[in-house]
Amino acid sequence: MLPATNSARPSLADVLTSCLDAILGRGNTLGLPPADRAIVLLVDGLGASSLRARAGHARVMARAFQKSSVATAGFPTTTAVNLATLTTGAQPGVHGLVGYTVLDGAHDRIVNQLNGWDDGLDPASWQRSRTVFERAADAGIPSVVVAQERYRDSGFTHAVLRGAGYVSGRTVPERFAAARRVLDSVEKGIVYLYVSELDQAAHARGWESGEWTDALEAVDAELGLLAASLGRSEGLIVTADHGVLDVPATSHVLFGDGAALVDGIRFVAGEPRCLQLHFEPDVSEALRAAVVDRWKAAEGDRAWVVTREEAIADGWFGPVVDDAVAPRIGDILVAARKAIAYYDLRAESQAGRHMIGQHGSFSPEESAVPLLRFGAFSTAGR
């Protein structure tokens, strides 16, 4: 059976769009009341299940965590995809970022959507949707992103954060303080505050590590100060782009040492928990079908193995996939069901195999993220 893609929970696509609607005094998907200023805190890698498990280390978040305080991250559950969904209000099949690494067919290559941007990949056209920040500017509402300085001029920033001003802060406390200053400087406006430290700790040490818990405590402490400072017309939402599973090296699934699973495959894209395999353009339909069948026979008990057409028909990338976006999706998708990660032995770099925290697939640990409300938004939708 394929994973369920229809959820009654809010989507990340609803968060910033609802904040803008609240500032404009309009009804919105999240049921947010009118507010003058809104701040969205995105804690990269903070899954709802991990937050529940470590609630004693995050008292501020835990007090706001109710049954309705969960949103669904889009597929694949990876940062590039879901930050684009958050900031555009569109699903991957429309905005066009469909994986961690994806096929750039015009240049016959695989590109990293976070840090692989170059002159051959135009952020303004590759990410195909207008951002919430651009729509806010149309309405006379300023938007400001608060993040680390190293992200300011990246191709990914130009793709998904266009339309917003940018303020940097090196540490978590510096970024929270900067967000408060921005709120104080505008009569109406949106602040998007990005924290990457939990995701980085998870990849290096795992979400069950002391380092991850320390990072959670640091964010929660700053959140408490910010939440206490909110005025009557200031609302705050805390969410995440995905959660994390810890996958030990003993659960790595290695492939590529034999021809059966890679026969006719030109590119391996995606990420370890959600492979996207692209065939050579001249591969016969018979071989394509045979390779799909081999993957299903080898991995069907621990992964969802589908063709591009099946994934699109089942709504994996949203209800609509634009014709220009479809070729970026793999011909075969292998999305892990169990706590495993796939690695191609033929890859030039095997550095990723040191990663402990993983994400990308459909598990609740990866796809369920917090949706916590504070200030003017704290009683909305309850």
Automatic annotation (TrEMBL):
A GO molecular function assigned to this protein is: hydrolase activity
SUPFAM superfamilies in the cross-refs:
Alkaline phosphatase-like
Gene3D superfamilies, per the entry = Alkaline Phosphatase, subunit A
Q: What is the recorded name of this protein? A: Alkaline phosphatase family protein
User: Where are the coiled-coil regions?
Assistant: none
